[in-house]
Amino acid sequence: MMQGGLRTGTTLDQLPREILIDIASCLFLEDIAHLSAANRTFYAVFDPILYLIDSKPYFSRSIYWAAENASIAVAQKALAAGTSVNEQSNPTPHNSIRKLQFSTWPEFSSRLPAIRAPRPLAKRIIIPAEMAALVELLLQAGADMTMVDGNALAANLNSFHATPLGYAMYCVDRPYFRAVQGNHAEVRSNGCFSPLTRAKLAIVGGHLSQLQDILALYASELDLKGENGRELHNLAYKDDRQDMCRCLYYWTHGKEADSSYMCDSTGRFRRYLIDCVQRAVENGAICANVQTDNKWSEFRDIEGIHVTFRYWIDDLGKRRRPTTLTDVAICIRDRELLELAISLEDETVRNPEVDQLRLLQCALSWGDATWAESLLDDKEGLDLQSDHLAETFVEILYNVIHKGYANCVEMLIRRGPSITGLPRTVESRRSIIAETIMYCQSRSSLVVILEHLLKAGADTTQVFADLERWYPKNTGYWLSGIGLRMLCQPGCMELLEQHGICVYRPHRLYLLAACEQHNYALVRRLVDDGVLQPDFNEKPTPTIGLQPMTGAHGDEDYMSESLMNDYMLHAHCRNRYPNAKYAADDVKILQLLLTQGLDINKRHFGHSVLEYACLELRKRHSHAEEMICCLIENGADVGAMEEDMGFTVPDKSDSGVISRYLLDITSHVKAGDRLPLSVLQTICRSDKPTTRKRVDLFMAHNPDILKNKTWIYDAMIQAAVANNVGTLQALMRYAKGLPRGIVTATRQHGLRLRMLHFLMALGLDCKETDLY
Asked: What is the DSSP string of 375-444?
């Protein structure tokens, strides 16, 4: 090459193509891609070479990227370069297969452990408009779908998913897959989808404009008033797409449908699900036997309903199969179906008041305050202030408080009886304030619920007595476990103080919980009161309201003074209860704690505060880099972390550079990995293509690791087990040859086709029978 770099258009484009291919073969695919994006000349030279090298069996990254992103241009380039359309070298994501087998295509489900049914059911995934054209391109190129049929085994399904076509379709829903599955043969023979198939794919993909374009071009070829029209209309109707149905009506009858088209007497869209239920009941189906009655067969085939017939985990956490139509409606949280199911129950056992109460309980358990209030406004609605519903009202109110629905609590307080004299039932063993502090499941709505209750006159005289009776002070469970975290939520302690429930007294446990709950105002108040000073006295007093727990013997502190102070920074940097709303407050809390003379380099279970920050904050904190910079600027020992984890920071002059480097180098490291070998092995366990760059970064700043070839060989085995050819290639530059046990290790953990071809190219004894 010429000194000073290659000049565009003078030397590089004049080299023979064979030499350029040899040069590119020594580079990684990412490097070739970056090189081709440098300028137009480099693009013209290296872009075809990029796809040519990528077409090898142990690469084929471009065809999978195109399948995942519905990119027709990239798929065309990859196929033109010789990439196999039935390549099976892509690693199969386990989570995607579980989703595929249990949620998307249940007819292909295997006997793997069952998963909990989604509640509420997830919305249909939006399919890109270009996906139909991409699938058509892959099928035209010879993509094989014959291995997937109605009786497909799990192994066949996994094999299909590992192909580009399967990788493109693993996230789509059943109607889309069935439309492609039923018409892939015509693509092989005609070279394209028929207009009917394109219209089907537009409907199940949810693309109204695409459907309008197809009907405008091919309306004369489609029998819209005959079988084709009925098929398209039923497909749109089953998907509850009113706009699609109206579009088909226009192209079928030549005029717009009126406002009452496909609407019931109330003006709501007449859903296919409700129609199926009504038809089944008219044909003699019994609502109490939806599992066994054959007349419910059409109902079971509805998208989403099939999940409920496997099992159902109710609000009490019990696993059972839904036997009645009401159970199914509650399971999928369908308001309209639930109302219909209750109205269809046997009239001999029906009770209008009980039916209204069941609907109200479901509405509140789903957090739908608007629906609940509409039930109460109905002329046959319940009167929550009646005496015979007093205990029922208490049960409902406590259940809503447990779930943390502040809007429902406000509605019940406004529409129900006074909460100052609630009856003491089994459900209300504790006062309502104590129950809220103990068992409210939503930290974000705790203060709002307490404000509603206190404003409504909730009894505050028995709060401490209830907590003390059920959870004695010498155990301290209610305050050290759940109650303390709730009490230290932003604004909670101040609110309780105003009503005389909690008498504020400085305590280190309050400070510890306030740091974990991102409560800067309380941390500031406790620090100003000297809780971190050596001469601070925190003996419990009998006049305190909610006081922190004492030791198991009742006369010793829960944590010693030195242990509490040392753990304060670690607890804050562990970020056990992340909350993006208070991320900026976490930085201010850290800065405040560092001004109190705490030992920033003190170890807790062998880890320093800086290690905790790098390993924990990076995962779920938006201000991680700022907090690590704060630690470094206040004297955190970077050298000790380098020695423990086996790396070298390249530039220690700028804390921002150091923090970014630490976050990058520890991105694949678990909290228990500290030795250099553990760090390198953890990095190599990833199957991402960017892992080889992290290996090069780690090796560049850790030259001492090159002295021990055994470590590199162990890392090679980890990369081979992860079926990551790029990482294995990167490691081969630092050690000659391959470890002896690499083939055995890959066989035991599952060898993929891409790694098989690569190992065979190196001359190792591998066979296709070793494939997983």
From this structure: HHHSTT---TTSGGGHHHHHHHHHHHHHHT-HHHHHHHHHHS--GGG----STTSS-HHHHHHHH-S-ST
Instruction: Please measure the distance between the N-terminal and C-terminal CA atoms of the chain and give it in whole angstroms.
Output: 45
The C-alpha atoms of residue 241 and residue 232 are separated, in whole angstroms, by 11
Q: Residue 590 and residue 449: Cα distance in Å, rounded?
A: 30
Between CA 197 and CA 201, with CA 198 as vertex, the angle to 5 degrees is 85
In this prediction, residue 202 carries a pLDDT of: 92
pLDDT tens, 179-200?
887 777 778 778 889 899 999 9
Q: Is residue 637 in a domain?
A: yes
pLDDT of 79: 92
Choose among 713, 709, 715: nearest CA to 685: 715
Please indicate, yes or no, if residue 612 is contained in any of the structural domains: yes
Q: For residue 9, what pLDDT band results from cuts at 50, 70 and 90?
A: very low
Residue keyed to tokens 């250099």? 676
pLDDT of residue 408: 93
Q: If you compute the radius of gyration of the chain from its CA atoms, what whole number of angstroms results?
A: 33
d(CA 98, CA 115): 8
Q: Are 258 and 280 in contact (CB under 8 A)?
A: no
Q: Is residue 437 part of a domain?
A: no
Here the tokens at position 236 are: 């749109």
Cα–Cα distance for residue pair 483/463, rounded to 1 Å:
12
Alpha carbon separation from 395 to 173, 361, 369, 399, 420 (Å, rounded):
40, 10, 17, 6, 15
Give the residues across from 751 on adjacent strands.
Answer: 771
Cis amide linkage into residue 120, ω under 30° from 0? yes
Residue type, 136: E
Q: Which residue pairs, CB below 8 angstroms and at least 24 apart, start in 446-449?
A: 446/404, 446/486, 446/489, 446/492, 447/489, 447/490, 447/491, 447/492, 447/495, 448/406, 449/401, 449/404, 449/406, 449/409
Hey, is 319 helix, strand or coil?
A: strand
Q: Please check whether residues 103 and 173 belong to one and the same domain.
A: yes
| Pair of tokens at residue 19 | 């030499």
> Same domain for 103 and 164?
yes
Number of H helices, E strands in the chain: 45, 2
Short-list 271, 211, 200, CA closest to 241: 271
405 or 101, higher pLDDT: 405
Last residue of a domain, one of 665, 700, 726: 665
Tell me whether residue 446 is in a domain. Answer: no
Among the three residues 615, 643, 665, which one is the final residue of a domain in this structure?
665
Full residue range of the structural domain in which residue 3 is found:
1-25+35-52
Q: Are residues 636 and 694 in the same domain?
A: no
Mean pLDDT, the chain, integer:
76
Residue pointed to by tokens 């469970």: 477
Residues 594 and 710 reside in one and the same domain: no
Helix (H, G, I), strand (E, B) or coil at 263: strand
Q: Do residues 647 and 722 both lie within one domain?
A: no
What secondary structure does DSSP assign to 530-572, as a single string?
A: TTTSTT------TT-SSPPPB-TTSSSBSS-HHHHHHHHHHHH
The verdict on 622 and 590 lying in the same domain is yes
Q: Which residue has the higher pLDDT, 408 or 742?
A: 408
- Half-sphere exposure for 62 (CA within 13 Å, toward CB): 27
pLDDT average, residue stretch 147-159: 59
- In whole angstroms, what is the distance from residue 308 CA to residue 313 CA? 9
DSSP state of 29: H
Asked if 243 contacts 169 with a C-beta cutoff of 8 angstroms, the reply is no
Cβ(100)–Cβ(161) under 8 Å?
yes
pLDDT at 770: 54
Would you say 58 and 758 are in contact if contact means Cβ atoms under 8 Å apart? yes
Number of domains in the chain: 4
What does DSSP say about strands 319-320 and 312-313: parallel, antiparallel, or unpaired?
Answer: antiparallel
pLDDT in tens, 237-256: 988 888 999 999 999 999 99
> Do 614 and 592 share a domain, yes or no?
yes
Do 644 and 708 lie in a common domain?
Answer: no
